[in-house]
Amino acid sequence: MSDEKEKIYLFDRPENVNRLLKGFYAICILLVLADFVVHRHIGFGWEKIPAFYALYGFVACVLLVLIAKKIRNVVMRKEDYYDE
Questions:
Q1: Is the dihedral of CA 56, 58, 59, 63 positive or negative?
Q2: Which of 12, 35, 55, 79 has the most CB atoms around its CB within 10 Å?
Q3: How far apart (Å, rounded) are the C-alpha atoms in residues 36 and 56?
Q4: Is the predicted pLDDT of residue 2 greater than 80, yes or no?
Q5: What are the tens digits of pLDDT across the range 22-71?
Q6: 47-81 as b/e, with b when 16 or more CB fall inside 10 Å?
Q7: H runs (alpha helix) in the chain
Q8: How many Å apart are CA 84 and CA 81, to the nearest integer?
Q9: pTM of whole model > 0.90?
């Protein structure tokens, strides 16, 4: 049984993970650049800001993480909660 080789999956190799991340970064950059070229039908004045949706998404994500860290302190149970 010890002679069996462990199966190597796609994301077990660091170079594959790096390629994936570089691809995601390239897509993000292309989408932000497309924001300057593509005409948008805006409904509010603040949507005129260049890369507004990218900035909005980034700020929203950061706020979600920060709020979740604070909520964790409120809803977290003791380590031996089920042993009592």
A1: positive
A2: 35
A3: 16
A4: no
A5: 999 999 999 889 888 888 888 999 888 888 888 999 999 999 999 999 99
A6: eeeeeeeeeeeeeeeeeeeeeeeeeeeeeeeeeee
A7: 14-37, 52-75
A8: 6
A9: no
* Amino acid identity at 45: G
Tell me how far apart the alpha carbons of residues 22 and 14 are, in angstroms, rounded to a whole number. 12
Q: Which two tokens stand for residue 30?
A: 């292309």
Write the CB contacts of 9 (distance below 8 Å, at least 6 apart in sequence).
none
Listed residue (26, 6, 22) closest to 14, CA to CA: 22
